Amino acid sequence: MYRKFIKPLLFSLSIERAHRIVILFLRVVGLIPGGRWLLHKCYAVEHPALEREVFGLRFPNPVGLAAGFDRNGEACRELATLGFGFIEIGTVTPQPQSGNPRPRVFRLPKDRAIVQRIGLANRGLAATIRHLRRPHDGVIVGCNIGKNTTTPPEQAPADYLKVFRNLYQYADYFTVNINCDNACRESAAYASSHILKILEPLFDFRRGQNQYRPIMLKVSPDMPDEVVDRVTDILLETPLDGIVATNGTNCRDGLQTSRMSLEKIGSGRISGAPLTRRAVEIVRRIHTRSGGTYPIIGVGGLMTPDDVRAMLDAGADLVQLYTGYIYEGPRLVGDICRALIADEQQRLQEAAKAAAAEQQRLQEIAKAAAEQPAKPTSDPAVVVAETPVTAEDPATRPTSEPAVEKPAKAAEPTAEPAAAEKAANIPESSDSGLPTTDPGAEMTSARSEPAPHESGEQA
Ligand SMILES: Cc1cc2nc3c(=O)[nH]c(=O)nc-3n(C[C@H](O)[C@H](O)[C@H](O)COP(=O)(O)O)c2cc1C
Description:
- It is a single chain.
- Helices cover 45% and strands 12% of the residues.
- The chain has one domain: TIM Barrel (Alpha-Beta Barrel).
- By secondary structure, it is α/β, with parallel strands linked by helices.
- A hairpin with a 2-residue loop joins strand 1 (52-54) and strand 2.
- It has 18 helices and 13 strands.
- Bound molecules: flavin mononucleotide (FMN).
- Flavin mononucleotide binds at residues 66-68, 71, 90-91, 105, 114, 116, 118, 120, 144, 177, 218, 247-248, 271-272, 275, 299-302, 321-324.
């Protein structure tokens, strides 16, 4: 339906107009009784195997909507009914700003990419508060915060703090967007001192609050590796909770779109398929350097379930989509979720198979031991003298004894056949039902626990 009818229609409009229509459509559906229920029924996939606990929040699935789609927090509830596990709104700046002149967003269909130089256009803090005041039905909302383009860099920390403190009670986590608008230089944005000047007032404000809000830092894919490492060290050395990697790239290498078309489009960040490899690489680097203990949200060029698998394998705890969603449509989230359920199903089946094989091996050993004839002891006195058998020394017990012990050991993995049973219960899609047991506990990896620092502050 999306590919055949809706996509050609939307792609015939300018990307910003198409985007506006989608947001308006979702808001209207949200007003119709049963509208959100219907969308949820059509697109959302629910399953305990998808649940993730990351920085103290329980996500219904790890697939979120990236910043820039719902810039003013207008349609979080409606977007969540399309199956997203969380929605990141923004970038929100203190004052409304109109951004760069239009046209400023372009499709590159040959590359399955988008170029944008929107310049952080948004309706500002006050409008966002108005939108977020409406109940959002337990949807996890992250808020991406930035500074106004006209704010000079030395006053940037005050802009970030203003948005942070005013939205603190309305968002579940925050992402600090230090990526440049067109008013700043990239190298200056990634200087550790500059980043710390922005982050420290946020940490100070959070210390005085009853509720803990995780703070993430969003980074550019154009950082050289040593800068990625430097930014990761900020994560290790401060109460920063995690990293969102990555934003769009300024790099134009390897594109299929003609040089002439690119020159006509002009400057802007590219997102979508050309970004996949670098985004995954950066996530892997951050994950390795931070010892896999800090939350990472992987974003950039996730166009298929396989891209998401690669991102999760690289160390991301959660992922976000933007351009992939534009090109593939609303089924993408469900496809990804179903692929992740299938992976979990396979993992459980393999674990169950391995456990069954181990059980069989132990049973065979026990059987062989039981069948082994007792050692001929013509002169028991001599044998006793050579190898004294004592109750304290199990290694020297008569060979018949392990036949009693081994089955007990073999019984250990019986938890895994239960896993096999669970695997067999995992349905093809969420709509078909829930497993009889709660695999949620198994899905919560030690790595996805909230960062240990400042745990005292957690709500
Ligand atoms: C039209 C558009 C607007 C965006 N606006 C923002 C923004 O305001 N703040 C932000 O942090 N990222 C913004 N992004 C970047 C995305 O959140 C994401 O990091 C990037 O597009 C890479 O993901 P993707 O390849 O899945 O699109 C925007 C991206 C696009 C395409």
